[in-house]
């Protein structure tokens, strides 16, 4: 136990199992009181009627920490607001939001059903937006009342969203959206003392076990110390960043940047574009390979 997060209050979404569970245990180990959120759904997002958050709360309490169960669907706007309210009512405030909940329905693009697209986009993108929207409004109100809270948001992107992943069009689009949301939220909320970063984790969980050879894959808890530090008051100078974590290696992800450019000085003629664009493409670095390509 350290006191890195002593006196701070956290929400971790999707914390009943996998990476979110590891984050919740780690934040509690460093002194945070934790709202352990989990809707309790299958890997494909179907209801199971179970609340794995309860056993995580029991583990935290058995280790001497403070935690409470929340069973919100994080992509439901009103339930996300009630989750933020629960943290404030139970523990007296909110300092840390770890957006982690999500599920996959992997398909090649041409086989993807409309309903699969909607469900995966909803759980990741709206499931990040809704808690962030309500927590952000609370932090703005606190800052305006002279009670700025050194608040920290850690979102969950993915290598699939940053480099792309064959067979995961929908998931990759959602996770790329989370990376972009992180950049904008960091700019908008900085004035209230809030930092917003994202991680791209790697771990052997039910999400990866079916899809890849996970025998040498990192463990969920390998991701959590970096989340704990980003959640601390001392991390106030790091914002708008995406950090990949793979076992013992953390990598700063560099996003879209302006590359080679040429100004025609007038509107381009279509017939000129081919040679000019090929020349520019040859000047820049090759894109990183898409996972599974
Ligand atoms: N495992 C990896 O290698 C990996 C890689 C990159 C990104 N990620 C991301 O990390 C996060 C955690 O993944 P994991 O591997 O631990 O998966 P997991 O399936 O083990 O855990 C996800 C948890 O989220 C919960 N959940 C799903 N929808 C929810 C909702 N609407 N509201 C509340 N809870 C909900 C589930 O019940 C589950 O307990 C996800 O966002 C995932 O996309 C994982």
TrEMBL record:
Residues 8-205 form the Ketoreductase domain. SMART domains: PKS_KR. The keyword DNA damage does not apply. Pfam families: adh_short. Keywords: Oxidoreductase. One of its GO terms (molecular function) is oxidoreductase activity. Coiled coil: none annotated. PANTHER family: DEHYDROGENASES, SHORT CHAIN (PTHR45024), SCP2 DOMAIN-CONTAINING PROTEIN (PTHR45024:SF2). Belongs to the short-chain dehydrogenases/reductases (SDR) family. This is NAD(P)-dependent dehydrogenase (Short-subunit alcohol dehydrogenase family). It comes from Nocardioides soli. The lineage of its organism: Bacteria, Bacillati, Actinomycetota, Actinomycetes, Propionibacteriales.
